[in-house]
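Response to reviewer comment R2.3. The reviewers asked that we include at least one raw input/output pair. We reproduce the pair for Serine--tRNA ligase here without editing.
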Amino acid sequence: MLDIKFVRENPEIVKENIKKKFQDQKLPLVDEVIEIDTKIRALKVEGENLKAQRNTLSKQIGQLMREKKVEEANKIKEIVAKNNERIAEIDPEIATLEEELKKRMMVIPNIVDASVPVGKDDSMNVENQKYGEPVVPPYEIPYHADIIAKFNGLDKEAAGRTSGNGFYYLVGDIARLHSAMLSYARDFMIDKGFTYCIPPFMIHSDVVNGVMSFAEMENMMYKIEGEDLYLIGTSEHSMIGRFKGQIIKESDLPLTLTSYSPCFRKEVGAHGIEERGIYRVHQFEKQEMIVICKPEDSMEWYNKMWSYTVEFFRSLDVPVRTLECCTGDLADLKVKSCDVEAWSPRQQKYFEVGSCSTLGDAQARRLQIRTKGDNGTYLVHTLNNTVLATPRGLIAVLENNYNEDGSVSIPKALQPYMGGKTIIK
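Raw output as returned:
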């Protein structure tokens, strides 16, 4: 959410940003919020003037009563009574207008960084750099569900009976490899100096509204019936929510945190749920990294964070590339974002395994997360990035370490978490 003062003083910049994001239907909102803001400020001035006048008149009434000028005092009392009636009307009017202002401000997109390429959708995202040689072996790489089936590692049929489409059982060495990857991701980030956390897996609606847009919430979040609780779609939600309404010591910044959680998503929309495999599912597990920092440090942390994900996957013998998200592919709260994509030798193309974003002070403004230093109190910046989301990450490891004889080599970094195993046969 933008600062209303910024919108008031820079309406054309806000409108141009909306156009860059191809959301022209939101252009009228800029003039609407300025108009509402003008009314709110006028009402506040009116209220302050009436209260000041009331104080002055009250003193006059006291003086007149002491002078036994009752009739004059009563006339002034009538004026004070009318002023009080108007003051009583103003506060509800302001509250109504402020709610209308907030509704509109919540859907005006954040100002994107100048470096973000302009484009309508993800088809116009821009490749930044490749890391590792994308190899296509001289033998066929089966579909990932078929690779797993060779090891009796997947049971979607039973999951369909217990939970429905979009769920799965992982079994045996495949389940162990899945867990090994998460354990390694945890230790990888701890070694980078991040503090390990396990957050709540359910959060209140005010936290949901603080960390994401309404459209994202509707398409992603599962609500607990009859309670003000939502299942998290990523641990970023509860990790950022942890600091709601807090003032963090400036000397404690940056906060560098890495969190594990299961994640739950509706996956509503064009993508849908994958019938056979486990690429797009309702439930998965994730190791996330979150940084809360001073505004001037956020871009430096952004570049560090995505590079950690690249380093992580390269340590698992998976070639990756980074893809700069264009304006039309950015969620409304994001300032800048890039995807980390893994090479699929079966499809001979890259697919997303992680996403890194800086949100400026948008989440901090919604949740009132501030810091206090020598120059006063101000909003922090928040960033998040995927270390590992699996089973999607599992697919990348299986395909890139698949051997001609049908076995899968276990990357060296994962072998200690697999009891020393070097291969799955």
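The domain at 4-105 is CATH 1.10.287.40 (Helix Hairpins). Residues 180 and 414 are 6 Å apart (CA to CA). Further pairs are available on request from the corresponding author.
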